[in-house]
Amino acid sequence: MLVWSFFQSMTTDPGQVPVFWGFHLGDNENKRRRYCLMCNVFKPERCHHCSACNRCVLNMDHHCPWINNCIGFWNRKYFLLLLIYVLLMTYMTAATLAYDFYEAIMWGFQVKFMATNDPKLSANIMIIFAFILDVTVACLMTAFLKFHIMLATENKTTIENLDKQGKPFKSVYNVGGRENWKQIFGQNPWLYPFPIFCGSGKPVGDGIYWPTTNSQQEQ
C-alpha cells in the first residue's frame, strides 16, 4: 500500500486549469478573476502557480520534492495515504527493533562499548543507530501527518495556512469535517484506505468550483 500510494502520488496529475477557463460568462461568477502572468491563464479560486513545475495547479497544497510532484486536488488523497503508511511502517520498524535495541543497550552497559574485538560491537551500534533514527522519523512524521489531517478537516491547504499564519483564520471552504474529507477521499469510506481513482473513490468536485460556508447557509 505504501509503494502504491507513493506511485500514485508521484504519477497522478494534481490538476491543471482547463483550456480557455475564465473567458466565458459564468466562470468564477461574482468573484474577482485572478490571472497568472507566467502561464497566461485565468486562475480559479484556490489555484496557484508552482515555480518548480512551471504551471498552475488546482487546489495546490505544496510542491513535494520527495515525489517530485505538486500536491493538488487530484492527488492529495494519495499523499495523505502515503504519510499514513510511512508512519505505520516506522511504528512497525520501531516495534521490531525495540527488543534488539534493549539488548544492545544492556550489552553496552556490561562491556562499556570497549570490546573492540567483539563482533557484536558493530552490530549493536547499528541497531542502536537504526532504532534512534526510526523513532526520530516516526516523531517527525506524526507531527507532519497531524498537521495535514488538521488542514484536511478544516478544508485548508498549506499555502492558505501560511498566508494567514499568525492571524485568526477560518476557511470559507470549511463546510464540515465529513464533507471536507469527501472532497479529498471521495464518497465511500470503505475506499479511503486504498489509493484508487474510480467511482466513489474519487474526490468530490472538480477542483475549480468550491462550495463555501455562505453557499451552505443559503441552502
TrEMBL record:
Positions of transmembrane segments: 78-102, 122-145
Keywords assigned: Acyltransferase, Membrane, Transferase, Transmembrane, Transmembrane helix
Reactions the enzyme catalyzes: L-cysteinyl-[protein] + hexadecanoyl-CoA = S-hexadecanoyl-L-cysteinyl-[protein] + CoA
Enzyme class label: transferase
Coiled coil: none
EC number per UniProt: 2.3.1.225
Protein name: Palmitoyltransferase
